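To: structure desk
From: M.T.
Subject: fold request, one chain
Message: Could you run this one when you get a chance? Sequence is below, nothing fancy, just the single chain.
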Amino acid sequence: MADILIWLVVGLAAGGAAGWFGYRYVEARKPPPPPPPTVGEVAEARTHASTLEASLQKATTEVEDLRTRSGIARPGEEGLPLIESSLAWRLRHQETRVRFLEAKLTEVETSSAQLSAAEARAGEAQRLRWRNTYLEGRVRYLEEELVRTGGMRPPVIVDAVEPVRAAAPEGEPPALIDAARDGRADDLRRISGIGPKLEQKLNSLGIWHYDQIAAWSQANIDWVNAAISFRGRVERERWVSQAMQLAQGKATAPEPVPETQDS
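Reply: Done. Structure tokens follow.
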């Protein structure tokens, strides 16, 4: 027991000595404390602190001014109305204006589409009118060309009373007369397919009245087709049946139409 106590006392003494030497070593390694500030250094630090406080106050004021002009709400004030003429108010106003202009643009585009469709329809109608006018002019030109080149040349009058009629290569000539009865010829243009030129041609052949055409036989029709240089036209356009109706007064004839050019 005595040995244990001895060794315990020796260990404590050794540990205390080691700790004291370590403390002294650490103290010896520490840098020397800074010297106390002078009066000038203290004054300079206070001046710098005042400058920093002034800068902080100026920055705070600028932030508040920017917040006021921008309309950005402070925490907890998000639901308050915007300040008029602030940036946020102007931004919201511009957004509203943009939506309004977009709606007007959509309305204008819809109206333009409808107008374009109407213009397209009007253009189509104008194109058809122009085409009809062109075709009518073309028909008149071809009729005049046929007369000029001899295809529909009127007969040459060599006698004041008896006109010279073109010889028919086929068929049998119908009943022909030199002039209209009582000087009043029927309006042959009321027969669909007979135009002004063709009416003149028929009159030159001696055909002036509906009852003449209504009485034609097939041989007469063949002769007339050959005389007017339009094979099959009389049958195709049903001149005989139309003339019967006009002669009997049982139906109203269609309006005169320009003479077509069939081969």
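Reply (cont.): The two ends are 154 Å apart (CA to CA). Let me know if you need anything else for the meeting.
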